[in-house]
Each structure stands twice: as C-alpha cells, then as structure tokens.
Amino acid sequence: MFKELTQIDQKPEVFSVYTTDKLWTEPHLAEQMLQAHLSQETPMASRPLIAIDRVVTWIDDMFELNGKSICDLGCGPGLYAEKYALLGAKVHGLDFSVNSIQYAKGSASKCQLEITYEVANYLEKALPSDQDIVTLIYCDLCAISASQRQKLYSQVRECLKPDGTFVFDVFSLSAFDSFTEHCSFAPNYMHPFWSNNKYYTFHNAFRYEGDRVSLDHYTIVEEERTWHVYNWIQYFTRESIRTELADNGFEVIEIVNGFDTEEANSSSFGVIAKLKL
C-alpha cells in the first residue's frame, strides 16, 4: 500500500495523462455529468440558465444570429445550441458524450427545433464547412494541452468561412490565483458522482506555476478496481491567448471581461477571433 500511496502523491508532468473523455463516455460518469449540465444548483459542468441567456444575448447582439450558420463545439445537452436556433441560426452541435447528444436530440424534437447533433470528438472529426461562427463555451479550451489546442485551431480554420468568427472563453489568472494545492482523502467522496458502489477517493490538487496550469487528480478505489481522473486546466492572460491565436492563424478582434459578468477581475474572459487574411 505504501508504494501505491506514494504513486498517488506524485506530481505528474503537465498534461502527461489525459482522461477527460472518461467523464463523458464511462456510463455512470456520463449520466452524472449530464445531470450536472442540467442542474441549476452547481456550475460544475455548465453555467446556470440565467447566465446562459446572458451569454447568448451578448453573442446575438454582436453577430445577429438570425440566418447565421453556427458550429457549437462541446455542445453537451444543447443548452446553447437551442437558444441559437430559437434566434434563427442554423446550428450544428458536436459532443463526444452519447448521453448528452441523446438528450439534446430529444429536447430539440420536443421544441420542434431543427438542429444537427453529432456524437464526435471535435479534435478528430471533420467539422462542417462554411460556418459563420464557431463557439466553444465554458472554457473547454482550457482542458486540453497545447498540442491538442493546435489541432483544434486547425479544425476551426477549416470550418469557418473566410470572414467567420471563433467565439470562446478561457480561465484567467484570477482563477489560477485562487487555486490552492491540497491533498485529501474521504470515503464516498462526492457520492454518488464517482460510483453507485462504496468507494474511497484521494484528491490531489497541484499547481504548475511556470506553465499556469492546475491539476485535480482523483484516485477512486472500489472493491474491484482502482482508477484515476486527471482534470487539467490551462489559464491564460490576454497577451498569452493573443499570441497563441496569432501563431495559429487567428487575429483577436475583441476580448471581454466575461460573457456573463462585468467584473474586472473575472475568473474567465471571452475572446472573439477571426482568421488572418
């Protein structure tokens, strides 16, 4: 057991282990994440609906969504996609969670909305072409490594019209500053999120100062198995995201404090970028 505990306590290299897909594809976790998306009591997976309304209203004010083609990456259960469609946009949503896409399709059908939903990893699947706008909302960009972000930017470049717009948000250094390292252990931690069975959880939180990255490493010990979830987050300054986008063929048009807040020191900020001509 000493060897196992020592391994749990070790700090891995930045983005050296990637398990994000497990949250959305493992049946029990996928259902838990869907419920977190829909919950109005926790911002774990999505903003509350009142905040989503503010975000979509802001995007509509900027771009007049009526008649626009929008590709919503990581669309989840369609919380943003439906609102885009209600404003007259032609929407294509992608997410690799089967649960979320099934829910999104059912909800769109009930609301009589024509939205194209696809179970797909947007880093791998060819995206629909000739899109006016690509959205990636709730800081999903921050959960992937630098090499994965390069792949994403390539995908978005191929997806957009020459005058199209990439709209997304990222976590700021204000959020990084509030992240503290810690180590904790508890039986049935966050129950029943990790499992319906009895389990024990180790939670190790690490900061990577020079990289501006944080990691929440969860080790879940069940009777029949021990498994891990690594939740990486990359944090950005306005300068760093401008530089990264410029290096990948984009020009930043505007940066806002936050899609759903006017706070100067918001934990996130929104970015509007266009292809370099």
Describe what is shown at a glance.
The protein has 277 residues and is of the alpha/beta class. It has two domains: 2-10 and 175-233; 28-171 and 237-275, Vaccinia Virus protein VP39 (Rossmann fold). The N and C termini lie far apart (58 Å).
Question: What this model shows, in words?
Answer:
The structure is a single chain. By secondary structure, the protein is of the alpha/beta class. The chain has 2 domains: 2-10 and 175-233; 28-171 and 237-275, Vaccinia Virus protein VP39 (Rossmann fold, 3-Layer(aba) Sandwich). It has helices spanning 2-8, 20-25, 27-38, 49-63, 79-86, 98-110, 146-159, 173-177, 238-247, and strands at 69-73, 90-95, 115-119, 131-136, 160-172, 182-187, 199-208, 213-222, 226-236, 250-256, 268-275. Strands 1, 2, 3, 4, 5, 6, 7, 8, 9, 10 and 11 form an 11-stranded mixed sheet that branches. A hairpin with a 4-residue loop joins β7 (199-208) and β8. The longest helix has 15 residues, at 49-63. The protein is globular and about 60 Å long.
Comma- or semicolon-separated keywords:
Rossmann fold; globular; alpha/beta
